[in-house]
Amino acid sequence: MSFAPPLEDSDHASLSACPACVAAPSAMDIARQAGAGHARLMLSLPAAHCAACITTVEHRLMAVPGVDSARVNLTMKRVSVEAAPDVTADHLIAALKGVGYEAHELDPGLLSATETDRQGRDLLMRLGVAFFSMMNVMLLSVAVWSGADDATRDLFHWISAAIALPTVVFVGQPFFKSAWASLRVGRLGMDVPISLALILASSISLFETWMGGHHAYFDAAVMLSFFLLAGRYLDHRTRAVARSAAEELAALEVPRAVVIRDGAEVILSITEVHVGDLVRVRPGGRMPVDGVVVDGQSEVDRSLLTGESLPVFAGPGTLVSAGEVNLTGPLTLRVTAAGKDSSLHRMADLVAVAENARTTYKTLAERAARFYSPLVHLLSFSAFGFWLWQTGGDVRFAINISAAVLIITCPCALGLAVPAVVTAASGKLFRKGLLIKDGTALERLAEVDTVVFDKTGTLTMGAPQPTNLTDHPDLAIEVAAALAGASSHPLALALAEAARARGFRPARVEGLREVPGYGVEGVWRGMTVRLGRAEWCGGAALPVTATYLCTGDGSPRAFTFADRVRPGAEAAIAGLKAQGKRIVLISGDAAGAVADLAGRLGIEDWTAGALPAEKAARVVALSQAGHRVLMVGDGLNDTAALAAAHVSISPASALDAARVASDIVLLGQDMAPIADAARIARQTSRRIIENFVISGGYNVIAVPLALIGSATPLAAALAMSLSSITVSLNALRLK
User: Fold this and answer.
1) Domains of the chain
2) Could you give the CA distance from residue 488 to residue 485 in angstroms, rounded to a whole number?
3) Known catalytic residues?
4) What would the pLDDT profile of 667-677 be if each residue is shown by its tens digit?
5) What is the torsional sign of CA 577, 580, 585, 591?
6) Is the pTM of this model over 0.70?
């Protein structure tokens, strides 16, 4: 049904109860056809955010007959369900809707097999081993420093070797593998001097122990490993980005379709659907293919692809696209494109291209490493050659000097310079309601000079609210509430909720019937009453979002609607303007609504009626013109623009794919922290530069001491550790 003329609206892709799960057979259908006893469903939970959500969702799903287990992954906002074959996705969706949770089905076959952070866990485990070994070797070293001599000293050295050598071999794997990969392609990455320093420190120590020497540097090797792993783990945590947005988009594609073959309905995989086939889409289902309607009337929610938040009428001859949602009546489509040729899949490809383009961005530390690593090796080998010549061939002494230079110049502080600051800044922003997903996001945010906003669901709340309810007689409101309560149309739901909140009780309307594409009608006091389109109710449509009530006693009454501005939107715009940022508003909404919001927020540069590809093209055009663009959006049709921007932010209420495509997630409803994020990003860049200065200053002082032989490998390791601690303390100043 429809309650208003087709209006192009926002870019908010809100799938209120996951219609796809109603229409699309789930993974369980496949299992049932194969005769399996159990099957697995994967549902996305955009609204899950805390431990209470986990308990509520799992308990509710476990109460569904046939469900064996339900496990929520709060980080990924998903729930994995194991159930009997006769349990389908729509059962689970309905159950979750009953406790207030929006959900929609994901195709498990298109998602990665594992969701665990294996690399992070591996680094953390190696870090723990390095710390344990470092403490034990240091205790043995204290005994040697305290005066242990001869056989006792040698015994402690051998025990240290037994602990340190396996530790270095094990915990140094991330550095050794990376260094070897660099050398194989003829590069000197940061891990090459790190690996060489670890090998030299261990080798010299083993040689000294074998020869009964006074000094061994196993403690230096293990300490070096620990600090390097600490920096690597921090770097990993700040760089950890969620799953690819293109992968999420592909998982949102309807995996199966109901195809009409020889007059019978057959469930087929989308790969078996061909151009020209007839496909049946039931009310509440998502379009599995692009096609043209050949039978039926309904309304279609196109917010997923076009940003039109209000449904539009669909009848014979109407073109529909994969990803759009059929709301009110059954439709039969003739397929024009399916699978990889569909609109939704083309959008996923667009996002993938933009994501791949952004991966070329390099951090300051990575760029500095290009020059740093060759310089470190040059200094170390030069020191070895000089002292070998100066001492008349004393290889042992020359290697000690070379190792000390290599260790003291080890890029541990350089490696910590960025992640330590980003970790501190991320913690500060998290307390303000912003979650940093990408370690380079703040560095990029500091460079931003242009901010592009989406409208509905971003600058506004994305939910229509009646604006003139009190202008109508109580009796008219009660009749309208009764009619609205018989529909799931967004405007009907908003009207019914507003009437209920104001204490109105629905009138006794009998024979309620929804007319797909038009509205709801019934009989009240012997008269036919209608709520829906203006022309259906015998009136003229207003140039605003509205639904119309006809009670047979005059002209239809118009109930108008507007979207509420998101809290903090004015403060965010004002704060960004104060920082000298250019503000741009791009929306798929109608020009009138966009102009009204732009005027209220003081945005001069705005565009209405923009399609997803046009949004991404505008962002790319701004970037090509030399601007650094921050994109703020929430809809699935914003994902290409989010991925194409220099840096991007999405609200936590955004669809999964939009959150995945963004670098920063706004956890609350208040938008004011966005301006704070831009300010803190600039502070973060200053701290990173300061850390580079500290690291460089340390080398200016320490390297000459090592070159002249005044620093042993152990002293070099202690100095390197001191520089790393200094860099970390400077990073903590952000807090």
Assistant:
1) 25-116 (3.30.70.100), 118-238+361-420+683-732 (no CATH), 434-449+567-667 (3.40.50.1000), 465-563 (3.40.1110.10)
2) 8
3) 454
4) 777 888 899 89
5) positive
6) no
